[in-house]
Design goal:
mainly beta; eleven-stranded antiparallel β-sheet; 12% helix; 11 strands; globular
């Protein structure tokens, strides 16, 4: 999620979010956050939010380009911004940036989410039950795909089997940046999961 996109998102939110939320009290974040969500795109509620993650800081500007992965490895897997890369659990965005992993599990609470365009919804993530499972729901009959920011793509790579070397060194850099609608490519000996990206711009306040 590069700086130019962050600027465009901020501009869009300033334009449409305030009128849409005029009757609701909420606290707007100074910097937008992002949710990495797994789920069927047409769902308005469901289970499995414990598999979701939260980026409190935009992972794009602090990411490391795939072409610099060997330098990252030589640096002890510590990115220039200070986060630690995990070869057994790593993320790529649509530009070919290795991203810091989001916070897991998804913190329970309520979040105003948007696709950065016309759709806004209040996402409620419930506290984990006795088995750690978390339910979620979107307000106003919005679906996951309604509040997914389409230009952002996010994929998580983990070893396909015990002993597999799932390395960014095996990723095809020529595939990036991705075309609209494309997801990050598969990588040898890796299991890939594609996550929807939801923009979080605020939380409700009481009163």
């Amino acid at each position: 999620m590069p700086l130019t996109r962050r600027t465009l998102i901020a501009t869009a939110l300033a334009f449409f979010a305030t009128p849409a939320l005029a009757q609701r009290k909420f606290r707007r974040f100074k910097r937008v956050q992002y949710i990495a969500a797994l789920g069927l795109e047409n769902e308005t509620s469901g289970t499995g939010a414990e598999t979701w993650g939260l980026w409190r800081v935009d992972p794009g500007p602090i990411g490391v380009w795939l072409k610099f992965y060997k330098l990252l490895a030589k640096a002890g897997n510590i990115a220039p911004s200070g986060w630690r890369f995990d070869i057994n659990d790593w993320w790529i965005d649509e530009n070919g940036l290795i991203m810091k992993a989001p916070e897991f599990p998804m913190p329970a609470g309520q979040y105003y989410v948007t696709n950065g365009e016309e759709h806004i919804s209040l996402l409620t993530v419930d506290a984990p039950d006795a088995n750690g499972a978390q339910t979620w729901n979107l307000s106003d009959d919005k679906r996951i795909k309604d509040v997914t920011h389409g230009p952002c793509r996010s994929s998580r790579y983990t070893p396909e089997f015990d002993g597999a070397v799932c390395s960014p060194a095996n990723a095809d850099i020529s595939k990036f940046p991705l075309r609209p609608g494309e997801s990050p490519p598969p990588v040898a000996d890796c299991t890939k999961k594609d996550y929807a990206v939801l923009i979080v711009f605020g939380v409700p306040v009481a009163g």
